[in-house]
């Protein structure tokens, strides 16, 4: 295991001085595209999380309402067994 204090510090801009200008421009273009892609992914993740929370809230609300509605039903509380009627022979 390497100690974090012993890790070499890398400067990504340091090595670009000896690189051809067209290659540097291409690297910069790719970095901009990557930053845009990452920002879009962050937005997408945020929307996904909000949608998940909304659906979770809806499910909890429906479950709570169902439990509350079932507790109010009284039709089985005064249930009497039916009286048997004897058949005439």
Automatic annotation (TrEMBL):
Residues 34-82 form the Cytochrome c oxidase assembly factor 3 mitochondrial coiled-coil domain. The keyword GTP-binding does not apply. One of its GO terms (cellular component) is mitochondrial inner membrane. The chain crosses the membrane at residues 50-70. It comes from the Eukaryota. It is found in: Mitochondrion membrane. InterPro entries: Coa3 (IPR041752), Coa3_CC (IPR018628). Keywords: Membrane, Mitochondrion, Mitochondrion inner membrane, Transmembrane, Transmembrane helix. GO terms for biological process: mitochondrial respiratory chain complex IV assembly. It is a single-pass membrane protein. The keyword Membrane applies. Belongs to the COA3 family. Component of 250-400 kDa complexes called cytochrome oxidase assembly intermediates or COA complexes. Required for assembly of cytochrome c oxidase (complex IV). This is Cytochrome c oxidase assembly factor 3. It comes from Frankliniella occidentalis (Western flower thrips).
